[in-house]
């Protein structure tokens, strides 16, 4: 006979500081009860997992991407605009990550109270060996999650307090912050210890028929990301090569697992916007949400679709970053490029295939309906409609229905670590350490080879540039490959390239400095018959060398409307 287990009911929230030590993450159960039964332990661990970022549009619907040159949020009342309006401050914050302190506290409480030996009383149960094997992994999963949450706080604030135990209310405010480098050192050391202990499997499916949990690959991926940030200009202003070497070595360790691969983008479940993301061979770690919802689609589908709100809309800046199919940069001065901006006369795609997986453009099809963002089109001219001429495609599940008569929600899963990021981490670190083509002994690729592996998955021509030109191509590849996956905002910060956002947001000084457009490109847009044929391409790009002035009224971003 199996011993009956007790069910733990999780608290809705926990304080950073410790509460009464008689109770822990429970409602009415003693700590002894909470940590004495496998089902309770599993729920406690699940609670720590529950703090992983969800939907990536956690700022009242806005992604951090919409605080960059990749996206604009349709609703200007959103706090995401506080960054561009220069009112971002300690009392007007966005995406503070404050809940991560709750997560860290919960993790610390678990680690302080977990004892695998309490399960020995179930040794005569039929499932004893199974539950003990699973429970053995719990502290390693929680330690990884704690390190992940610590990193999330560090990339927001730099120097943060390293809270590695629970604290009483009277002592929590006395904890001094640690430097960013010290925080990264802790994360790296913790990851190394988990790996040294062989604490987590390569794949939970092989181990216990489970997915969505922390693995060896996730641990190594976190180490790679943390060291890349530590080596970047924001935290490494002198460009110390040793930091880049460490970052390269960390990424190489993930590659050396031979666990992950990059399929062609057209067949990669990661891009399909359905429930099969976790079947992608490049997925390392994801946030899973088992609830069947339509919230993400409602926030981001084109205005005019039933129940949609517009939301996060890609910029022309981002669209222009996607090369032509032959590998040449899109050029508004090139008549062929403008004439075949998205497809040719036969309807064949003309751009990097990843464009179509990220962006809904004027003339694209969504839910068997033609997207119309031209002036007078079905999906513009109303509150919440795109200011850019584009809508979001990435992460959108076409199986979701917003029809109030027959609504349909689906599970949503969002990637937190994937192999393409690791290859791009590696390429960036290698470039800054040894250049674009050097491949030291025991390293799998040169920077160029790693970059081109990512491009291979999209069948894009290999990058041949050298020096700074290579670096710019590398950064652009990272921009388009990882678009809308919560990277661009942080990449701009760590690279210290915030001027790209200043230009986008129409800073007066910068607009005056760069206030001119190539008239040839403008004339192509105005005069070419395809403009009229497709309903009018009315959103005109005005970039660094774009027109600013009364002829094209500025909408507050890098876009201008032609009436």
Describe the structure.
By secondary structure, the protein is mainly α. It has a domain at 508-561. It is built from 22 helices and 10 strands. The chain has helices at residues 31-34, 38-49, 81-84, 99-113, 128-157, 169-172, 180-196, 204-208, 216-231, 241-255, 295-300, 316-321, 335-339, 354-358, 419-434, 447-456, 467-481, 488-495, 499-504, 508-513, 519-527, 529-533; strands at 71-73, 283-293, 312-314, 359-360, 365-366, 369-370, 391-392, 410-418, 539-541, 559-561. The strands form 5 sheets. A two-stranded antiparallel sheet has the order 1-3. It has a two-stranded antiparallel ribbon with strand order 2-8. Strands 4-7 form a two-stranded antiparallel sheet. β5 (365-366) and β6 (369-370) form a beta hairpin. The longest helix has 30 residues, at 128-157. The relative contact order is 0.11. Residues 1-28 and 506-563 have low confidence and may be disordered.
List the main descriptive attributes of the protein structure presented here.
563 residues, mainly alpha, two-stranded antiparallel ribbon, 22 helices, 39% helix, disordered N terminus
């Amino acid at each position: 006979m199996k011993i009956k287990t007790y069910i733990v009911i999780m608290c809705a929230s926990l304080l950073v500081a410790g509460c009464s030590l008689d109770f822990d993450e429970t409602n009415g159960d003693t700590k002894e009860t909470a940590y004495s039964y496998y089902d309770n332990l599993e729920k406690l661990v699940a609670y720590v997992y529950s703090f992983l970022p969800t939907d990536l549009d956690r700022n009242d619907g806005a992604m951090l991407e919409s605080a960059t040159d990749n996206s604009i949020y349709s609703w200007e009342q959103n706090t995401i605009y506080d960054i561009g309006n220069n009112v971002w401050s300690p009392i007007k914050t966005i995406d503070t990550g404050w809940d991560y302190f709750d997560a860290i506290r919960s993790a610390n409480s678990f680690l302080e109270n977990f004892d695998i030996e309490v399960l020995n009383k179930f040794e005569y149960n039929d499932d004893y060996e199974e539950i003990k094997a699973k429970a053995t992994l719990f502290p390693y999963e929680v330690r990884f999650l704690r390190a992940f949450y610590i990193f999330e706080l560090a990339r927001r604030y730099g120097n943060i307090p390293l809270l590695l135990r629970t604290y009483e209310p009277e002592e929590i405010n006395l904890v001094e912050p640690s430097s960013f480098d010290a925080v990264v050192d802790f994360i790296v050391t913790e990851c190394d210890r988990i790996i040294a202990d062989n604490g987590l499997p390569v794949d939970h499916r092989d181990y216990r028929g489970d997915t969505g949990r922390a693995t060896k690959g996730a641990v190594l991926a976190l180490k790679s990301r943390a060291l890349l940030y530590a080596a970047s200009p924001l935290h490494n202003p002198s460009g110390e090569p040793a930091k880049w070497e460490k970052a390269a070595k960390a990424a190489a360790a993930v590659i050396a697992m031979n666990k992950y691969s990059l399929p062609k983008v057209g067949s990669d479940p990661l891009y399909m916007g359905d429930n099969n993301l976790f079947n992608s061979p490049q997925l390392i770690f994801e946030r899973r949400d088992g609830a069947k919802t339509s919230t993400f689609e409602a926030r981001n589908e084109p205005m005019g679709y039933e129940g949609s709100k517009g939301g996060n809309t890609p910029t022309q800046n981002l669209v222009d970053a996607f090369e032509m199919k032959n590998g040449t940069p899109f050029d508004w001065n090139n008549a062929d490029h403008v004439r075949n901006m998205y497809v040719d006369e036969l309807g064949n795609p003309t751009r990097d295939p990843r464009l179509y997986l990220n962006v809904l453009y004027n003339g694209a099809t969504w839910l068997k309906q033609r997207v119309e963002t031209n002036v007078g089109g079905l999906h513009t001219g109303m509150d919440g409609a795109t200011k850019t001429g584009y809508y979001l495609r990435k992460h959108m599940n076409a199986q979701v229905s917003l029809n109030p008569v027959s609504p349909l929600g689906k599970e949503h899963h969002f990637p937190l670590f994937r192999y393409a990021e690791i290859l791009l981490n590696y390429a960036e670190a290698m470039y800054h350490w040894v250049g674009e083509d050097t491949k030291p002994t025991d390293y799998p690729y040169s920077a160029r080879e790693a970059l081109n592996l990512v491009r291979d998955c999209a069948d894009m021509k290999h990058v041949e540039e050298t020096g700074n030109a290579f670096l710019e191509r590398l950064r652009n590849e990272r921009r388009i490959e990882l678009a809308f996956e919560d990277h661009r905002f942080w990449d701009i910060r760590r690279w210290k390239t915030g001027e790209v956002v200043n230009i986008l947001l129409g800073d007066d000084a910068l607009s005056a400095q760069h206030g001119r457009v190539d008239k040839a490109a403008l004339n192509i847009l105005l005069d070419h018959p395809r403009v009229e044929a497709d309903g009018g391409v009315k959103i005109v790009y005005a970039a660094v060398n774009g027109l600013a002035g009364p002829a094209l009224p500025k909408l507050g971003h890098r876009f201008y409307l032609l009436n």
